């Protein structure tokens, strides 16, 4: 169809609306676009722009309706289908999202980020069509001659060199032309180090569940803590807890990156900590503008930023040994136990019965509670073989409706009765922790292993079998097991992983011994002592500041082990 022309007045409204949209003045932008659509209701480009605004305003149902209407009028617009896919996946309508991304790529194979988003949407519902070719395309994420792929999706390939190349590529494009001021470190008037934590996930989110207790226990005689929120306010208890845990909470969701960087500089932030990396909603441009004298990558992304303006990455000796520092643009800070904090005050609810959770009264329960996006066909095929090897066993999973149908179909095709897959509905975290203890063995994914979920399993004494590789993301569960005193559950190749899982399923006495070791508070004290962790990360921050105050360039920092400080709550 031909797009209806706009009058000079309408063209002026379009220009004004777009300029407001670029500046983040979303209400103003929407007002201008709606004025045009009152006169020209079938203009797909204006619908498209208004849909983009509504998506940013979290009015997703309205955005989807606008995208669909625009796509009906302009079906050959690849970017329109891509943006529709983003809207669908933002509300977990991943099957619809995958269809939209596939439509976009059919129209334009060079569409930036399209391959990664299609891979993610299909993996989320365990639709493994074209899984191998999509992974093969992601393997070229660092190649400037290929379409751009978000670095996050390279975590599904155990290749830290690729992860660095992909991250550098995205940073070069997004941060081109940003001029950073010279920002020397200076001592604060009260002698305290001013730390800012920046995240889009200060809400009901796994990263916040890990971080919030650290925010609460930071030593306020030495540190002033500010939270910069660049994401939506979900009004959850988790959000409110973060707000009350810091000295200053600043909502920067509507800021442009340069405005947030200026805010941090005006507050005299000494160390700005990025809790995002290359995850959804990040604003790496804030750091390109040098928002603080010291800038740190931490916790939210198990890989490198690829940015020269990020000074340090916080890790530990297992997930990031110094010999692998060449795969990171940052200097490495090694905490002696684990880089991952936790909230030891988080308590499970009352434990339910197997019947209440839809589990059989008898028989072995294998558990795979990782996000379904981490699950690949080869790993699931092995899990099905375990079921065939262990009569009466079941596999307990977290999955949405679309993923459930696909997984049942995979089981049927492999000769496993689909009813041996038990699906757990989503529950509040205390209830989820309580039911996890009913499982006999947690089966990890590879190469993107369990992170927060591994900590959840260990918290309730559930043994976990993991496999490690070369990348940071592949080693997190392994480190948590080591620190918990059960490093014998860590394997380093698929044959060993499969053999150990089967051996444990057939040896209830050995499994009971492992469980007893995990339930022994003394054996896992290092993992759940937040005061010990606080002392270690604060030692790292002080070392960073000492170098910055002396005018020295960032360098690797290895924090020495310290005695526990307190019982850990």
UniProtKB/TrEMBL annotation:
Top-level lineage group: Bacteria
EC number: 2.4.1.255
SMART domains in alphabetical order: TPR (SM00028)
UniProt KW Transferase keyword: yes
Extent of the TPR repeats: 78-111
Keyword annotations from UniProtKB, A to Z: Glycosyltransferase, Repeat, TPR repeat, Transferase
Domain O-GlcNAc transferase C-terminal residues, every copy: 188-339, 353-536
Species the sequence originates in: Xanthobacter oligotrophicus
Gene3D superfamilies recorded: 3.40.50.11380, Glycogen Phosphorylase B (3.40.50.2000), Tetratricopeptide repeat domain (1.25.40.10)
Upper lineage: Bacteria, Pseudomonadati, Pseudomonadota, Alphaproteobacteria, Hyphomicrobiales
Annotated signal sequence range: none
Protein name: protein O-GlcNAc transferase
Keyword Repeat: yes
Pfam family, one: TPR_16
Family the UniProt entry places it in: Belongs to the glycosyltransferase 41 family. O-GlcNAc transferase subfamily.
Pathway per the UniProt entry: Protein modification; protein glycosylation
